[in-house]
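testing teh design pipeline on a random one, pls ignore if ur not involved
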C-alpha cells in the first residue's frame, strides 16, 4: 500500500471485549461504514443496530442520551447543539399552524421569543400567563383548544415554582401536551410527574464547567421519535466531542449540584437577614410563597439565588462592581459563581403589564452559586453590601 493510500486507511487497533476502556472513547467520525450493501440496508431499515451518519446518531452522543433519559425517568433523549436548539426542535416538532400554546411571562427570553416570533410567523397562537396563576391556567385550557403548555420550574430568575401536578392534570384533561424546561431543577428532579417532554440546557449543570454548549430533549419513546425526525433534519445536533465533555461533566453532576444547592441556601439565608436586601427569591427559604410546594416536588432547591436590593440604581451597580468572587456574566450552573445586574435581567418583548407581572424590578440581582467555599461567598457579599 502506497503512502497516499495508507494515510487514508491507517492500521486498525482492535480492543478485546474483555479489555474495555473505563472512559468510553470519542467517536470523532461523521461517517460509519458496513462490510456489505445488505448490512447497510438492514441498518437503514432498523433490522440491526448500527450507525451511518453522525447527524442522525453517534455512539458518543448516544451514550449521553441514554444516560440522561434514564436519570430523568423517560424512554429516550435527543442531544442538541444548545439548550435553545432543544427548545426550538421541540416546539417546531410538536406545534403546527392553527395550534395554540400556553406559555408564561417568566419563561427564559429566547424560548419566549421562539414562541412569540418564530411560531407566530408560522401561524401558532399563544397566551402568556404567570406561572403561579393556577386558576388562569385552568380557564385558558377550558376556553381554548391548546396543543402545548410550555413552562419552567423553578423559573429563571425569580425561582417561581409551578404546581407540576396541577398543570399536568389540567393540560392532559384538555388534550394538551406539557413541555417543561427543567434546567434549573436538574435531571434528578420532577421525573415523578406526568411531564410529556423535558428540555434541558446541558451547558449548565450537566457540563458544569462553562466550556461546552449543549441541550437535551427527553420524552417517552413515541414523542422522542417524532421530535428526533425533525431535530435531525434541522441539524442542530450535539457533536461527539461536546457529548464527551458533557459525559465527563455528568460524572460529578450530583456532587456539584448538591454542594451548590447547599451553598445557595446558606447565601440566601444570609441575604434574607441583611438590611440592604428588600426580598430574597429562593424556594428553600420558609417565607418563599411556594416553599411547601417546592419541598414536596424537589429533592433540593437549586443553586440560583435572586434578590431585590433596597438601593437605588447607582447603589445596585456599585454593589455588583464591588463583588470579587462573582463574575459578571450570563448563564448559570457552572463551577464559578456569577452575578447578573437588573439591566441584564430585564425581560424584553413583553408589554408593560407583562413585564410587571414577571417580577423583575430595577434592583433585582441574580446570583448563580458555584463550588467556592460558601463562607467566602458570603464574606464577599457582605463586604459589597452597604452597611
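output:
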Amino acid at each position: 500500500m502506497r503512502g497516499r493510500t495508507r494515510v487514508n486507511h491507517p492500521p486498525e487497533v482492535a480492543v478485546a471485549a474483555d479489555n474495555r476502556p473505563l472512559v468510553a472513547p470519542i467517536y470523532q467520525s461523521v461517517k460509519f461504514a458496513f462490510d456489505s450493501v445488505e448490512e447497510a440496508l438492514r441498518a437503514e431499515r432498523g433490522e440491526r443496530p448500527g450507525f451511518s451518519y453522525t447527524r442522525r446518531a453517534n455512539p458518543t452522543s448516544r451514550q449521553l442520551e441514554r444516560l440522561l433519559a434514564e436519570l430523568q425517568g423517560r424512554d429516550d433523549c435527543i442531544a442538541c447543539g444548545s439548550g435553545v436548539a432543544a427548545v426550538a426542535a421541540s416546539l417546531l416538532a410538536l406545534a403546527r399552524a392553527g395550534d395554540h400554546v400556553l406559555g408564561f411571562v417568566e419563561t427564559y427570553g429566547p424560548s419566549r421569543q421562539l414562541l412569540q416570533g418564530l411560531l407566530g410567523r408560522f401561524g401558532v397562537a399563544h397566551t402568556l400567563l404567570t406561572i403561579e396563576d393556577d386558576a388562569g391556567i385552568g380557564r385558558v385550557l377550558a376556553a381554548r383548544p391548546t396543543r402545548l403548555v410550555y413552562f419552567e420550574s423553578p423559573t429563571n430568575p425569580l425561582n417561581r415554582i409551578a404546581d407540576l401536578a396541577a398543570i399536568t392534570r389540567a393540560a392532559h384533561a384538555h388534550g394538551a401536551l406539557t413541555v417543561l424546561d427543567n434546567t434549573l431543577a436538574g435531571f434528578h428532579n420532577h421525573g415523578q410527574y406526568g411531564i410529556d417532554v423535558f428540555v434541558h440546557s446541558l451547558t449548565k449543570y450537566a457540563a458544569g464547567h462553562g466550556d461546552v454548549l449543549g441541550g437535551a430533549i427527553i420524552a417517552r419513546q413515541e414523542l422522542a421519535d417524532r421530535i428526533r425526525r425533525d431535530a435531525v433534519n434541522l441539524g442542530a445536533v450535539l457533536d461527539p466531542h461536546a457529548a464527551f465533555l458533557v459525559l465527563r461533566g455528568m460524572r460529578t453532576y450530583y456532587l456539584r449540584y448538591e454542594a451548590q444547592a447547599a451553598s445557595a441556601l446558606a447565601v440566601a439565608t444570609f441575604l434574607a437577614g441583611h438590611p440592604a436586601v428588600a426580598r430574597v427569591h429562593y424556594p428553600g427559604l420558609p417565607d418563599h410563597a411556594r416553599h411547601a410546594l417546592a419541598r414536596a416536588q424537589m429533592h433540593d432547591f437549586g443553586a440560583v439565588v435572586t434578590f431585590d436590593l433596597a438601593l437605588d440604581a447607582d447603589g445596585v451597580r456599585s454593589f455588583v462592581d464591588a463583588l470579587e468572587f462573582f463574575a459578571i456574566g450570563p448563564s448559570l450552573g457552572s463551577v464559578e459563581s456569577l452575578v447578573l445586574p437588573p439591566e441584564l435581567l430585564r425581560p424584553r418583548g413583553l408589554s408593560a403589564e407583562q413585564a410587571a407581572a414577571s417580577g423583575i424590578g430595577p434592583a433585582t440581582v441574580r446570583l448563580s452559586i458555584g463550588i467556592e467555599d460558601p463562607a467566602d461567598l458570603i464574606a464577599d457579599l457582605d463586604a459589597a453590601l452597604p452597611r
